[in-house]
């Protein structure tokens, strides 16, 4: 016992961090109370995630991994130790982040949460007729059978025996468990009135005098002067589907391949977001996805669908709204599967409790929003008996209507009251208000952030003069005048997902906000019902696929004019100024660091000695433009580069225009050469918005652009949206933030509830009318938020 009468084991009630330097943290030291709810606040890019995820959670995970044997560690992801002097008092960390769930077409809400596995066992035990093991109900298992001779040693002799095996799986053989089949619209691939020599292809880059045109023309499989509509069946098959075949064209040995497999490999294998706009538009036009005709989109074989419990097969069960499925399982009473039913019941009830009762188990996990994915991951922790664990959340209120945030707050407090330490990165005042302890980082973003501005309770934060403290009580006035629409987008009979034959006119030329509780049908209305030909540019928060070599300069296309300007000024070729091409440092191949894999121990990244992390050959760095070499340009922040390329000798209008757009969306603090893998969800969305701002489309659809934005940054976002509308664009925003609603010219409110209790338009009109009516949940919350 210690002098104070406290047992020495009870004295470790703090997580101590000293000298954290991960990313932009500047020797940060904090003490976080255990078994309490601590909220981390600060502007976007101030270092919250670096402290919570990159330091505390990362070290906890690394130390847990080290408790396993070297053999097991060899199969686990290797984590390097965060750059921090002291980390004391850590407990096991469970990370519940917003990483979207894998968008594998065979991954659904059911497969991601084990609910599907339990249902499969249930049907394999109680389903009539009995068809086989749980595998027979899985759309990820194909049916296979085989027979043959096997050799083995027995008593010093080699014995041969015939063996047969068969696996009965539930996968639909036509769509291979995907539920959808893709089809090419041939009319969008070529004009069949033209011959090959006349250039019939509508595919970007497939002109008659280009390489592809010459390969098709010189292949000898069909007459290049005959219109395609006159081709025989064999000729058309050779044009579209022929297997790779060696041919000689113009004296060069080549491989000829049919048009459709060629397109599948070259275009369909790429991430849609990373395509150039004209290629993306072509892919959207040329490829149609339809429900598989054999399984009706259920992904399951006919055999799997034939076995039923109380008249319901497994496909029907997975298609039910989870709240209804929970009711259905309550009606099943069979002692032989008692424990299984109890477990399944608990999982389904957790869905309802966390506010996801409107989903169905067959919903593809790639279609869940970041907030829904995060809440789905929370489900397995709700009923957990573990205590004294550190739960780490990344903006758990994303995608939640103010009405739903109260429920999320109750869950966070429940986890804390079980004796756990709860760390939350959050911007919403409603959640900051329930914190026991607040750590405010800042004062700015990027290099201007990374220090602790305030540590203490919520009252202390309110009275502190930090950016967060000043904005915590922010209220917005309703607009005195709203813009008049210049036209309207008609949506008639929309019935995607839970929409109930919705007819609505979305006004154009104004800022239109679509709102409603989570699961009320907002995304279904915007994504599933707006006509494709309306010139819509959609900007969401899905991850940008890119390697650690991708950065804002390469993603936005800004590096091209910069490389050309360097090349022109020095009389050399542009490829020298690419770290992925000829200019790459030979020591590290342009990565700037050398990765050493140490098997099961954390890999080590050491700065390359040859280029000192600059990524380029020494000879390339001698070439300058405007007094800077290429590595110095990539080390600049967007704001510095905007000034540099704006005027004087170093003026590059094409690069300056892109930099201006990045500043407009609030990314002035990003470095041009910063790896894309280090960006947050909100930063990714704003980067995409900046790239799309130059496109010709007139209608912008934004999915919760306030995600990851500090209260202070929301004003800047609203100014940007205003600028877009004033430039003649139409902006449609799916949003829950009251400040954005109050700023709208027109609001479409969906509801009244979620799932089959939603899917209807409950209000259309101006924000002032919504506040006056107070007829919907949104109206109630908006009325409380705005200043009278």
Automatic annotation (TrEMBL):
**Principal location class:** cytoplasm
**Domain ABC transporter residues, every copy:** 9-468, 470-777
Q: Where in the cell is it found?
A: Cytoplasm
Keyword DNA-binding among UniProt keywords: yes
Question: Which regions span the lipid bilayer?
Answer: none
What does the similarity note say? Belongs to the ABC transporter superfamily. UvrA family.
Q: What is this protein called?
A: UvrABC system protein A
Recall the taxonomic lineage recorded for the source organism: Bacteria, Bacillati, Actinomycetota, Actinomycetes, Pseudonocardiales
């Amino acid at each position: 016992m210690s002098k104070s009468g406290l047992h020495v084991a009870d004295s470790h009630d703090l997580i101590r961090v000293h000298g954290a330097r991960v990313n932009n943290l500047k020797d940060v030291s904090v003490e976080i109370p255990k078994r309490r709810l601590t909220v981390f606040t600060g502007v976007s890019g101030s270092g919250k995630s670096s402290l919570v995820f990159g330091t505390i959670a990362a070290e906890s995970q690394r130390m847990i991994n080290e408790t396993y044997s070297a053999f097991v560690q060899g199969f686990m992801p290797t984590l390097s130790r965060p750059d921090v002097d002291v980390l004391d008092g850590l407990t096991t960390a469970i990370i519940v982040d917003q990483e979207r769930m894998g968008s594998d077409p065979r991954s659904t809400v059911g497969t991601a949460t084990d609910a599907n596995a339990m249902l499969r066992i249930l049907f394999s035990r109680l389903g009539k007729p009995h068809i086989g093991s749980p595998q027979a109900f899985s759309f990820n298992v194909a049916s296979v059978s085989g027979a043959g001779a096997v050799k083995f040693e027995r008593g010093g002799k080699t014995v041969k025996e015939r063996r047969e095996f068969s696996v009965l799986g539930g996968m639909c053989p036509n769509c291979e468990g995907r539920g959808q089949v893709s089809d090419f619209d041939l009319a969008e691939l070529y004009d069949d009135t033209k011959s090959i020599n006349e250039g019939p292809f509508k595919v970007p880059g497939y002109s008659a005098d280009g390489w592809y045109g010459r390969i098709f023309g010189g292949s000898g499989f069909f007459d290049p002067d005959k219109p395609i509509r006159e081709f025989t069946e064999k000729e058309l098959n050779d044009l579209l589907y022929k297997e790779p075949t060696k041919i000689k064209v113009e004296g060069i040995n080549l491989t000829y391949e049919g048009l459709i497999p060629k397109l599948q490999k070259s275009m369909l294998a790429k991430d849609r977001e990373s395509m150039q706009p004209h290629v993306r538009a072509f892919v959207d036009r040329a490829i149609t996805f339809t429900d598989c005709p054999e399984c009706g989109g259920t992904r399951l074989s006919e055999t799997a669908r034939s076995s039923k419990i109380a008249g319901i097969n497994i496909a029907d069960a997975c298609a039910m709204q989870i709240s209804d499925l929970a009711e259905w399982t309550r009606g099943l009473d069979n002692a032989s599967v008692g424990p299984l039913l109890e477990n399944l019941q608990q999982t389904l009830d957790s869905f309802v409790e966390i506010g996801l009762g409107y989903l169905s188990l067959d919903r593809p996990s790639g279609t869940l929003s970041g907030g829904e994915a995060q809440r789905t991951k929370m489900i397995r922790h709700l009923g957990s008996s573990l205590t004294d664990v550190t739960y780490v959340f990344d903006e758990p209120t994303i995608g939640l209507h103010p009405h739903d945030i109260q429920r999320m707050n109750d869950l966070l407090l429940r986890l804390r009251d079980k004796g756990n330490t709860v760390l939350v990165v959050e911007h919403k005042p409603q959640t900051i208000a329930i914190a026991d302890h607040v750590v405010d980082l800042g004062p700015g973003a990027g290099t201007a952030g990374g220090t602790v501005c305030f540590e203490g309770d919520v009252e202390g934060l309110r009275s502190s003069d930090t950016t967060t403290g000043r904005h915590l009580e922010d209220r917005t006035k309703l607009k005195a005048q709203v813009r008049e629409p210049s036209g309207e987008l008609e949506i008639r009979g929309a019935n995607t997902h839970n929409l109930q034959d919705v007819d609505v006119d979305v006004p154009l030329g104004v800022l239109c906000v679509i709102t409603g509780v989570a699961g009320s049908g907002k995304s279904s209305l915007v994504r599933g019902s707006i006509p494709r030909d309306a010139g819509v540019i959609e900007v969401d928060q899905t991850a940008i696929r890119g390697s650690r070599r991708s950065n804002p300069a390469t993603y936005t296309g800004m590096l091209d004019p910069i490389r050309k300007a360097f090349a022109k000024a020095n009389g050399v070729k542009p490829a020298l100024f690419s770290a992925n091409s000829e200019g790459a440092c030979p020591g590290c191949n342009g990565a700037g660091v050398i990765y050493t894999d140490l098997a099961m121990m954390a890999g080590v990244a050491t700065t390359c000695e040859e280029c000192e992390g600059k990524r380029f050959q020494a000879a390339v760095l001698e070439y300058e433009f405007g007094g800077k070499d290429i590595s110095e340009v990539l080390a600049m922040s967007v704001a510095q580069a905007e000034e540099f390329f704006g005027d004087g000798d170093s003026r590059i209008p094409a690069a300056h225009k892109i930099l201006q757009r990045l500043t407009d969306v609030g990314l002035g603090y990003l470095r041009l050469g910063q790896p894309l893998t280090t960006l947050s969800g909100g930063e990714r969305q704003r980067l995409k918005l900046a790239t799309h701002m130059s496109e010709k489309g007139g209608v912008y659809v934004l999915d919760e652009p306030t995600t990851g934005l500090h209260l202070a940054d929301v004003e800047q976002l609203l100014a940007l949206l205003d600028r877009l509308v004033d430039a003649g664009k139409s902006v449609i925003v799916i949003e829950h933030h009251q400040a954005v609603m109050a700023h709208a010219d027109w609001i479409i409110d969906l509801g009244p509830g979620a799932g089959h209790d939603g899917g209807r338009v409950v209000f259309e009109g101006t924000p002032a009318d919504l506040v006056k009516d107070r007829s919907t949940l949104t109206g109630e919350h908006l009325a409380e938020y705005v200043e009278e």
